[in-house]
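Lab channel / #folding
Pinned by the channel admin:
"Please post every new chain as: sequence first, then the structure tokens as a reply. Keep commentary short and put observations after the output so the thread stays searchable."

First post following the new format, from NK:
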Amino acid sequence: MEAKFIPYSKELLRGEELKNESLRHYQFMNSRRTVREFSKESIPLDVISNIIMSASTAPSGANKQPWTFCVVTDQALKSKIRAAAEKEEYESYNGRMPQEWLDDLSYLGTDWHKPFLEDAPALIIVFKKSYDLENNIKRTNYYVTESVGLACGFLLQAIHQCGLVALTHTPSPMNFLCQLLNRPVNEKPFLLIPIGYPAENVMVPDIKRKERKDVIVYY
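Reply from TO:
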């Protein structure tokens, strides 16, 4: 297949303007927090769609875009997802997780109860596709985990940009999501993300992010 190219155009920043914009964006992203208590106020589906389409602009191996974003707003289905997730989480907190993991989580105040799966107005469930199916023929995808991980990063940034909050939830195993959402065999659940407005007077853990010296190495 012969490559086809089109002109690329983007406004370029330099000097103090570039420095100021980089600092502004860092400070904005540093205000992002994971929230576990959601308002039940609804979000327009158009907004969720735009957020997901922003996520879908992420780079991917060979531009295969190996992801599917499932949006769940139906309350009965959210309740089923919560029940299945809490079943797995109970097992994790009561036997699957080693003590070191439980100790590392203890200061966050989490446990197997997951009310946010019903309270949040929408759940975005991200599925990764190791291969595509075209007329029952398998088409390999490349760097699937990396690609879907990048898309999820874009998704969280877009959620924050819109003034909404989210939680990255990974009940393990997550195969129940394939069954409840009737997903095809080439899709596997990657991340479960409740999205919405924060509950009134919501509290978050008092945590600190690593400093520059602990994150960056220059050569």
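NK: The chain is about 40% helix and 15% strand.
TO: also worth noting, The domain at 40-200 is CATH 3.40.109.10 (NADH Oxidase).
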